[in-house]
């Protein structure tokens, strides 16, 4: 079976009829959306004649909905026997058991049969205008001939194999097998967005290994921690990264990380630049090793619930958690959301500019688009390199139809003015998406008015690493349904959001705020935390038994639309990157001069949130605060990543604490927000005078300007 996003005859008919009928048919004297043209499976759902009814059906008949969609949109080696076996109160989540499939076959082989010449990846390299296109196709005879020839021709063949995704994946799969990677092992990938990174992910999927992609901005220590937790024997990286015109020495970072990772036996190094790097006995040149391999790689037969990948993300404690996603449910959810949230159609060019090191890159640069047979863009650069017109120049040059980016970039670009956008032809765009953090109304309006020429929908998409794919977003909905700026608004198929009050009761009325939970399981949700199912249960299942707790707060408007108001825990969001304040505190506290610290997020007009650290020094310390600030920043950058560095470090004599010793971060937030009336009752503090000192110190550090 194939996707409507593929090239099957059935799909062509669907698209044709959609165009001819314009998706509308007369129903009971009114023009109604032809829901079966919109989603073919809906023809089998009793009484479903509108998109709204389809959404209702997907929630109230969740099993029947997901069974139909899974049968239609995934290629199964063996069909599943149960749709779901879930109990949220116990943290048991299983979908499509009995089913066997291979994710790489779903993302590659089936498209090779139907549309081999279609471009799967467009690698938008850092250097503008040097994009590389990779088709789905497997190897042709010309290529085999080249492979057998001399070195010069061999290097030509690198260009050749770089142009077919299935064959890159197969070679990498065979290579990993030759080096002893087995089904169930976990391979760590530390690479910027590039075709070899995608092929490495798919190669893992092909042979049944899990992948653990680590954002290539993370420090050696952060990388080492993730490699150790995943127990990877194999790491895949590049010699150097290139971003914003600068060289980033990624292999050096890997070398440092691997020193502290006894599990690592081999590191494959791809050549992103021509600069040689020092190779250790564990290192192998990736392209060379690939070239030794066959272009056919037998796909492993995987159970629906086998692990597809781990992805580490921050929680409210210091230790990042490796969220686990499995095969069928994740892929199906990524594919369905990609198709319907963005109104993706066969032949479209989909441009998600997120890094593959985040869940957005996994679901919407790689798995969702490839499962749908799409052409997907891998963006290696930054929004302002070589100038603030970069995104829109790329939209024009690559003829992007759906553009998916982050509010932090939009806020940055709007400051550079409209000309950078208007210079370029954006007429190919059909949908604009936003993800990662709340999008403020000003940024939303600018995105809609200037980038989208008021012509196309902007979809604010709310979701998380844990949810696998988009859960709340304005589309799909009735084609003319309103979209409210800055609101994620409507649940996706199969998603039933609920708001809880502080006593854990479900809030049933509208125009109310509460803790955002999801009332029933869906196929894309994470299954556990690697090596720590107890933490999974405690974090997501126990706060509101029977519900999945998201950690976010939300407001439901009087119309019933959802607006995400932000985290309820000590997790902050810096330029769309999730980071636990405890994670930063743990690192700050490692400095020998530091007695203790408290880190909070504050509103930042570009980054969304900035990092503000309050630091108490040990008594005997006499160092200048400027030197100490630099030292602390360097430590955070070395242990976590640059984006986690505090924007402000305020040295204080003591922190406001309750009598039981708990730091009152709420008070610190109010000080930084300059909301002194909102400090609340300070009588429960151990030492209320501490607050006055902190207010004074804050004014000295920041002056009249609120940070
Ligand atoms: C936040 C990113 C408001 C939220 C896909 C969530 C958002 C966390 C939105 C997950 C949005 C994501 N509006 N807030 N549209 N999208 N968030 O795991 O706090 O990196 O819990 O996944 O980002 O971040 P993560």
Describe this structure in words.
This protein has 707 residues and is of the alpha/beta class. The protein has 23 helices and 31 strands. Strands 12-11-8-6-7-14-15-24 form an 8-stranded mixed β-sheet, with helices on both faces. Strands 5-4-17-16-18-19-20 form a 7-stranded mixed β-sheet, sandwiched between helices. The chain has a 5-stranded antiparallel β-sheet with strand order 22-21-23-25-26. Strand 30 (608-617), helix 21 (625-639) and strand 31 (648-652) form a beta-alpha-beta unit. It binds 5'-O-[(S)-ethoxy(hydroxy)phosphoryl]adenosine.
Radius of gyration: 25 Å
- Side-by-side strand order of the widest sheet: 12-11-8-6-7-14-15-24
Give the biggest sheet: 8 strands, mixed
Mean pLDDT: 90
Label the overall shape: globular
Distance between the termini: 55 Å
Total helices: the number is: 23
How does the helix and strand content classify structurally? alpha/beta
Query: What's the number of extended β-strand segments?
Result: 31
Question: Ions, cofactors, ligands: which are bound?
Answer: 5'-O-[(S)-ethoxy(hydroxy)phosphoryl]adenosine
Sequence stretches where pLDDT stays below 50 over 5 or more residues: 1-31, 140-161
Strand content: 15-25%
Which range best describes the helical content: under 10%, 10-25%, 25-40%, 40-55%, 55-70% or over 70%? Answer: 25-40%
Domain AMP-binding enzyme C-terminal: 583-662
Catalytic activity: propanoate + ATP + CoA = propanoyl-CoA + AMP + diphosphate; acetate + ATP + CoA = acetyl-CoA + AMP + diphosphate
Family: Belongs to the ATP-dependent AMP-binding enzyme family.
Organism: Xyrichtys novacula (Pearly razorfish)
């Amino acid at each position: 079976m194939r996707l409507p996003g593929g090239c099957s005859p059935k799909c062509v008919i669907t698209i044709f009829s959609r165009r001819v009928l314009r998706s509308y048919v007369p129903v009971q004297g009114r023009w109604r959306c032809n829901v079966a043209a919109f989603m073919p499976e809906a023809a089998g759902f009793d009484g479903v004649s509108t998109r709204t009814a389809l959404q209702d059906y997907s929630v109230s008949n969740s099993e029947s909905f997901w069974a139909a969609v899974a049968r239609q949109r995934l290629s199964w080696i063996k069909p599943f026997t149960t749709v779901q076996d879930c109990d949220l109160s116990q943290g048991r989540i299983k979908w499509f058991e009995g089913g066997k499939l291979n994710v790489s076959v779903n993302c590659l082989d089936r498209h090779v049969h139907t549309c081999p010449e279609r471009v799967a990846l467009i690698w938008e390299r850092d250097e503008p205008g040097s994009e590389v296109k990779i088709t789905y196709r497997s190897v042709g005879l010309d290529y085999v001939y080249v492979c057998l020839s001399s070195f010069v021709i061999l290097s030509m063949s690198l260009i050749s194999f770089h142009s077919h995704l299935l064959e890159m994946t197969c070679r990498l799969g065979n290579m990993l097998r030759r080096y002893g990677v087995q089904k169930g092992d976990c391979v760590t990938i530390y690479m910027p967005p590039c075709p070899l990174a995608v092929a490495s992910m798919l190669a893992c999927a092909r042979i049944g290994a899990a992948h653990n992609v680590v954002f290539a901005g993370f420090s050696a220590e952060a990388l080492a921690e993730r490699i150790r937790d995943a127990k990877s024997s194999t790491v895949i990286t590049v010699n150097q990264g290139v971003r914003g015109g600068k060289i980033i020495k990624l292999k050096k970072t890997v070398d440092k990380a691997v020193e502290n990772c006894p599990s690592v036996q081999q590191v494959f190094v791809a050549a992103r630049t021509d600069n040689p790097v020092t190779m250790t006995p564990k290192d192998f040149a990736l392209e060379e090793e690939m070239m030794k391999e066959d272009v056919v790689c037998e796909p492993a037969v995987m159970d629906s619930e086998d692990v597809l990948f781990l992805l580490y993300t921050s929680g409210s404690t210091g230790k990042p958690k490796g969220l686990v996603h499995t095969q069928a449910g994740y892929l199906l959810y990524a594919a369905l959301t990609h198709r319907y949230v963005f109104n993706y159609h066969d032949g479209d060019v989909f441009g998600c500019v997120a890094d593959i090191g985040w869940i957005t890159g996994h679901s919407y640069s790689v798995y969702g688009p490839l499962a749908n047979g799409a052409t997907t863009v891998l963006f290696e650069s930054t929004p302002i390199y070589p100038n603030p017109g970069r995104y829109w120049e790329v939209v024009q040059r690559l003829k992007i139809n759906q553009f998916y980016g982050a509010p932090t970039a939009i806020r940055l670009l709007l400051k550079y003015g409209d000309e950078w956008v208007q210079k370029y032809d954006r007429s190919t765009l059909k949908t604009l998406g936003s993800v990662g953090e709340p999008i403020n109304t000003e940024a939303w309006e600018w995105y809609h008015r200037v980038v989208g020429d008021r012509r196309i929908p902007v979809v604010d998409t709310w979701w998380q690493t844990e949810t696998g794919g988009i859960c709340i977003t304005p589309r799909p909905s009735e084609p003319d349904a309103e979209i409210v700026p800055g609101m994620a608004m409507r649940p996706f198929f199969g998603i039933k959001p609920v708001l809880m009050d502080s006593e854990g009761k479900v809030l049933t009325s509208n125009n109310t705020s509460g803790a955002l939970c999801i009332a029933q399981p869906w196929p894309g949700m994470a299954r556990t935390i690697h090596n720590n199912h107890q933490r999974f249960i405690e974090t997501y299942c126990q706060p509101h038994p029977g519900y999945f707790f998201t950690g976010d707060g939300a407001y439901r408007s009087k119309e019933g639309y959802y607006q995400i108001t932000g985290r309820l825990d000590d997790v902050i969001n810096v330029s769309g990157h999730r980071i636990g304040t405890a994670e930063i505190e743990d690192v700050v506290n490692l400095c020998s001069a530091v007695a203790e610290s408290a880190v909070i997020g504050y509103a930042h007009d570009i980054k969304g949130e900035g990092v503000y650290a309050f630091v108490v020094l040990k008594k005997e310390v006499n160092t200048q605060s400027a030197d100490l600030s630099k030292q602390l920043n360097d430590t955070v950058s070395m242990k976590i990543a640059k984006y986690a560095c505090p924007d402000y470090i305020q040295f204080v004599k003591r922190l406001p604490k309750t009598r039981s010793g708990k730091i009152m971060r709420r008070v610190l937030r109010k000080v930084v927000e300059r909301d002194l009336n909102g400090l609340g009752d300070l009588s429960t503090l151990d030492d209320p005078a501490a607050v006055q000192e902190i207010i004074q110190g804050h004014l000295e550090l920041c002056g009249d300007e609120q940070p």
